[in-house]
Amino acid sequence: MMTHHTIRSGGYDLTFFRRLTAAAIFVAAIFAMHALPAEAQGNRPQGQRAAPPQPAEPEEMEIEQIELTQTQIDAFIATEKEIAPITAKIKGNAQPSKQIMSQMETIAKKNGFKDFDEFGDVGTNIGMVFGGIEPLSKQYNPEELIRRQIAAVQADKKIPAKQKQQILKDLQQASTSVPKLKYPANAELVVKNYDRLQPLMGQ
């Protein structure tokens, strides 16, 4: 059974934030995409064996969507560049200390955000759009990206049948759960800044 919750940055969910900045998600598909073995994603080094993928039950996530501005994107890029060295020092799933939180709050405010929560909200909305952009065409089309993942899994004969069935089930579910953009202009804005955002999103 799928779970449903609204994502917001309040309280600083470090696990989600890392996933956002490292993988550039499009929200509904993230867990299904992470279940894919490296062969299907086309990024396993030759000769390297990957650990068997663990099927992940997709979650239906609802993002609190906001209308992005160029000023917010500029501020996000500046803030992320400054806090990246700080968050890199946090090990595993450990939560940041009050001192680290204070540092990041100060950086966010210095770059024009009301507080760190606003920075998180802007980052979440950027990540939702960025993850649905096809890198070559620079078009926002998350449904097409999921279709490609489905085709890659179907064509991969190295995936055990049971795992393949679960992965395809997750991807099919994700394909019906891609969130609709409340503000379509956000896609145009993120595409415009794609090359500047790409290094921050780990793509």
Note down, in words, how this protein is organized:
The chain has helices at residues 14-23, 30-34, 38-41, 70-87, 98-110, 116-130, 142-155, 161-175, 185-192, 194-197; strands spanning 4-7, 60-63, 133-134, 139-140. The protein is built from ten helices and four strands. The chain has one domain (4-35, 57-196). α6 (116-130) crosses α9. The strands form two sheets. A two-stranded parallel sheet has the order 1-2. By secondary structure, the chain is mainly α.
Question: How is the secondary structure organized here?
Answer:
Elements lengths: L3 E4 L6 H10 L6 H5 L3 H4 L18 E4 L6 H18 L10 H13 L5 H15 L2 E2 L4 E2 L1 H14 L5 H15 L9 H8 L1 H4 L6
Parallel strand pairs: 1-2
Antiparallel strand pairs: 3-4
Helix pairs in contact: 4-5, 4-6, 6-9, 7-8
Write a concise synopsis of the structure shown:
The protein has 203 residues and is mostly helical.
Determine the structural class based on helices, strands and strand pairing. Answer: mainly alpha
- By DSSP, the count of extended strands is 4
- The portion of residues forming beta strands comes to 5-15%
Widest sheet, order of strands: 1-2
Morphology: globular
Question: Could you spell the SSE succession in H and E letters?
Answer: EHHHEHHHEEHHHH
Biggest sheet details: 2 strands, parallel
Low-confidence stretches: 1-60
| End-to-end Cα distance | 31 Å
Q: How would you state the average pLDDT, rounded?
A: 74
Helical residue percent band: 40-55%
Number of helical runs?
A: 10
Cα-atom radius of gyration: 17 Å
Number of structural units classed as domains: 1
